[in-house]
Amino acid sequence: MSDMHGAARRPLSPHLQIYRPMLTMMMSIVHRITGVALYFGTFLLVVWLVAAASSPSTFATVNAVYGSWIGLVVLFGFSWAMLHHMLGGLRHFIWDTGRGFGPEARELLAKLTVGGSIALTVLLWVVIFVVKG
Amino acid sequence: MSGSSEFPGSSLRTVRRRVAGLGAAHSGTHHFWLQRVTALANVPLTLAFLAVLVCVAGEPPERVLATIGQPIVAIILLLAIVSITTHMRAGMQVVIEDYVHNEGAKVLALVGNTFFCAAMGCAGVFAILKISFGG
User: Fold this and answer.
1) What Å distances lie between residue A129 and A43, A60, B20, B48, B55, CA to CA?
2) pLDDT tens across A41-94, in order?
3) Contact B128, A50 (CB under 8 A)
4) What is the pLDDT of residue A20?
5) A-chain residues within 8 Å CB-CB of B127?
6) Residue B94: helix, strand or coil by DSSP?
7) Could you tell me which chain A residue has the CA closest to the CA of B126?
8) Which architecture characterizes domain A22-132 according to CATH?
9) Residues B89-114 pLDDT 10s
10) Cβ atoms A94, B58 nearer than 8 A
11) What is the CATH number assigned to the segment(s) B29-133?
């Protein structure tokens, strides 16, 4: 102990790389990542709206890009990020009431978040392709 | 509060500061509350937005514009854009404050975040209004 002095020798609190990945931890990280993804995804949404308001040719161009193979993959990811972030947000509302912090409850909420987001995204796109052909 | 009456010298905070309840950052729970209120609003608004997008997907352009321009639809989309961009700004602010430690870069990023969200909000609102009012 006698040689421990100065800021460099103080014990540091462990960071992410120390911990074994857990589902609840991953859901927290994914919540933030989907939030950042949606932040930039909003740009795509606004581009579409502005194109619709601009001219028929601009709107047609943007629709062609968004309706392309790569465009649909991006939109699929966008919709999953939105649904995952929404379910993650609802989980936070449950925590805001002081409930759901126990080991079983938070594990269940994490599973519902990831399972629910995947199920809802698949359901959404099945509906889109069945209804819209 | 009984603690502070027993040990009047135990807190450096003045009574006025404690009553104001705004803490060291002088903004209290404003950021948290703004984030939560817009989060709550986003649930029905983004689901409605998504429903509109699914309805107009693959439709002819004039039908898409007619749908977006309907008063009820336009009002929902306008509310969604305002709530979403406000929520975006609050969320990205936290991410920047967590990861950008250089003071100059942090201030620039925070201002850039505000500019980006304001631009997205303004552009989205303008587009919806133009589609609604025609011209």
Assistant:
1) 25, 20, 55, 19, 12
2) 999 999 999 999 999 999 999 999 999 999 999 999 999 999 999 999 999 999
3) no
4) 84
5) 46, 49-50, 52-53
6) helix
7) A50
8) Up-down Bundle (1.20)
9) 999 999 999 999 999 999 999 999 99
10) no
11) 1.20.1300.10
